[in-house]
């Protein structure tokens, strides 16, 4: 794990409100968001995109990881002008982020394992107190094979 400081950026994609309890019991929305984005090739319809790495954003937290949040899956963009209907733009604020790299394996296994690890970390282990403003996952070339995926989770810190 490392700590990085970076400036803010925008992500445009498909979003829904959910919570971790719903995701654990099979009533969540994250799987459907992934399905819609990939099935309908929605990433190709996002204007002003910066690269091809998918970004999964957790933002608009109700309180912390136990409450509701907005989950957005999309691409980083250079501008939020002309965002098509049915797409959502969210700003990832600048600041300090703890970068946690997952193990390599099936994406459906390594993503929840990585979040479990983050939730169990002390403030000292994480490198600071979580801000619950925005966290995000990066799906780059290491995650093109969903059975041997590796992702990075950026955890917003105060």
TrEMBL record:
Q: Which InterPro entries match?
A: AraC_E-bd, Cass2, Reg_factor_effector_dom_sf, YobU-like_regulator
- Domain (AraC effector-binding): residue spans on this chain: 1-158
TM spans, by residue? none
Task: Output the superkingdom of the source species.
Answer: Bacteria
Task: Please identify the protein, giving its name as recorded.
Answer: Transcriptional regulator YdeE
């Amino acid at each position: 794990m490392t700590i990085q400081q970076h400036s803010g950026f925008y992500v445009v994609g498909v979003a829904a409100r959910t919570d971790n309890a719903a995701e654990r019991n099979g009533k969540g929305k994250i799987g459907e968001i992934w399905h819609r984005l990939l099935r309908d090739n929605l990433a190709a319809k996002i204007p002003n995109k910066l690269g091809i790495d998918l970004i999964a954003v957790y933002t608009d937290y109700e309180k912390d990881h136990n409450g509701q949040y907005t989950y957005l899956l999309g691409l980083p963009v250079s501008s939020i002008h002309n965002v098509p209907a049915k797409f959502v733009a969210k700003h990832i604020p600048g600041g300090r982020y703890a970068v946690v790299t997952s193990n390599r394996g099936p994406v459906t296994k390594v993503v929840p394992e990585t979040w479990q690890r983050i939730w169990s970390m002390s403030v000292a282990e994480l490198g600071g107190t979580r801000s619950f403003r925005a966290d995000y996952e990066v799906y780059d070339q290491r995650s093109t094979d969903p059975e041997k995926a590796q992702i990075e989770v950026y955890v917003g810190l105060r």
